[in-house]
Write a structure and sequence with these properties.
It is found in: Cell membrane. Keywords: Cell membrane, Membrane, Transmembrane, Transmembrane helix, Transport. Its main location: membrane. By secondary structure, this protein is mainly α. The chain folds into three domains: about 190 residues, Growth Hormone, Chain: A; about 55 residues; about 210 residues, MFS general substrate transporter like domains (Growth Hormone, Chain: A, Up-down Bundle), CATH 1.20.1250.20. Helices cover about 80% and strands about 0% of the residues. The longest helix is centred in the N-terminal third of the chain and has 43 residues.
Length: about 475
């Protein structure tokens, strides 16, 4: 009996680590590519807007298909969808590495995003199915949550090492053996599970969501280069607006919507959604611009640029578990407020950064960003889940993850509207002033949401939402 118990504990750990491996590569691929972007630009002789699509093509596909992947896994089997997602992600990573044109790279990054969308929600569902006891589930989810911060922070460091000693192509090749190991472990250890009776997938809502996200981001990225009245920019902007309007009208009137509009009657849930968007706009946008600043303006090598962000990754790694503990002890208000204040400090200090700013000042900024990001993830998830009835907690958490990916995409897309001149080594001051002001506004919004999500009005809205669910 004892041997069997030990085996079961080891099996659970292997399942947890396998799920964490899948999360690690999916999340790391958001930031690991940032350090490689100047090398990709040099190889392909391409422009900033194309570079933005290398990043946003991936994050948009993940954001678009997360909810559909989760519901599909519930229907046909979580293990099966996890293996399919791993195989798709691994194949796409290899294809990215052998890409010969920017168009091929962007297309294969989108294929990566399709695979990535199957990994995050499905792996989380597997963890909740395997870890049934309350305390062990909390510990498992805590480890799972910390992987997000670690992988995002480690991305620039790993990317810098790979690009400096090998090539930007190996940023993608490195995923292949990790994915192969995860597929083998999934086949051997992960049990199959599914829901016997599930609602039909909302393919119309899914199509409208994809249309909205891609049309909107396309118009944002292309606007500075082509102008508002360029036919493709104007038409995609209009299509995006129409798509999101039709989406909410359609979702309100069907029985099994992809996203139920009534969710947004809950102030805590709505606050969590905007927290995810604003927080990840700042974080991923900063990492994107910081890479260009270090390599294009200061002449850092990819390795130097990656290693310089070690303070950010280290602080985020230390703070993330403490944020979960703080939420458990004192609620979400103070951690969210601390996140907003830290990110506001980042935005303010960046206004004074020049080409010759001492690295110690940048390290201070990285520490503030690490504190802010470390304080962000747990409160978002908890606020989203607690903002909905228990029966809707899984969907609420999935929507929060989707909003994070939307924030990642906007963090890369929006700066193109605000950068005042090309980024070159001849500049003494960064052309990012307007971007830092935007990030400052996002940080102020985070501070405001820390109050709103915990206000008496928020508690009153919960009672109203429970009437519908």
């Amino acid at each position: 009996m004892l041997e069997r118990t030990v085996f079961m504990i080891d099996r659970k750990k292997v399942i947890l680590y396998t799920c964490c491996m899948s999360l690690f590569v999916v999340t790391m691929d958001v930031t690991v590519v940032n350090v490689a972007l100047p090398s990709i630009q040099s190889d392909f002789h391409t422009n900033l807007s194309t570079l933005q699509w290398v990043t946003d093509g991936y994050t948009l596909m993940v954001a678009s298909l997360l909810l559909l992947s989760g519901s599909t896994a519930d229907r046909i089997g979580r293990k099966r969808v996890l293996q399919l997602g791993l195989a798709c992600f691994g194949l796409a990573s290899f294809l990215c590495g052998i890409s010969q044109t920017p168009g091929q790279l962007i297309a294969f990054r989108m294929l990566q995003g399709i695979g990535g969308s199957m990994l995050n929600p499905v792996a989380m569902s597997i963890i909740t199915q395997v870890f049934t006891e309350k305390l062990e589930r909390a510990k498992a989810i805590g480890l799972w949550g910390s992987v997000t911060g670690i992988s995002l922070g480690m991305g620039p460091i790993i990317g810098g090492l790979i690009v400096s000693y090998f090539s930007w192509r190996y940023v993608f090749f490195v995923n292949v053996p990790i994915i192969a190991a995860a597929i083998i472990l999934t086949q051997k250890f992960v049990p199959e599970s599914k829901v016997e009776k599930t609602a039909k997938n909302d393919f119309v809502g899914q199509a409208l969501m994809i249309l909205f996200l891609f049309s909107s981001i396309y118009s944002i990225i292309g606007l500075p280069r082509k102008g508002l009245f360029a036919p493709d920019i104007l038409s995609t902007g209009i299509i995006g607006c129409l798509a999101i309007a039709i989406f909410f009208i359609y979702e309100y009137n069907i029985d099994n919507p992809l996203i139920n509009p009534r969710f947004f009657l809950s102030i805590p849930f709505t606050s969590a959604s905007f927290l995810a968007i604003f927080g990840f706009i700042i974080y991923n946008g900063y990492l994107f611009l910081n890479t260009l600043y270090l390599q294009e303006m200061r002449g850092f090598s990819p390795l130097e640029a990656g290693l310089s962000t070690i303070p950010l990754a280290f602080v985020s790694f230390l703070v993330a578990p403490r944020a979960g503990e703080m939420v458990g002890r004192i609620g979400t208000k103070r951690p969210i407020m601390l996140c907003g204040i830290s990110m506001l400090a980042v935005s303010f200090l960046q206004l004074f950064v020049t080409k010759t700013t001492p690295m110690i000042i940048l390290f201070v900024i990285y520490i503030f960003l690490g504190i802010g990001f470390g304080m962000l993830n747990s409160p978002i998830t908890i606020t989203a889940i607690e903002g909905m009835p228990l029966s809707q907690s899984g969907t609420a958490a999935a929507i929060a993850v989707t909003c994070k990916q939307i924030g990642n995409s906007l963090g890369v897309a929006l700066p193109s509207l605000l950068i005042t001149k090309p980024i070159t080594s001849s500049l003494t001051r960064t052309p990012f002033t307007n971007v830092w002001l935007l990030f400052g506004c996002c940080a102020i919004a985070i501070i405001f949401l820390s109050y709103l999500s915990n206000s008496p009005l928020a508690k009153k809205s919960l009672r109203r939402v429970r009437f519908y669910f």
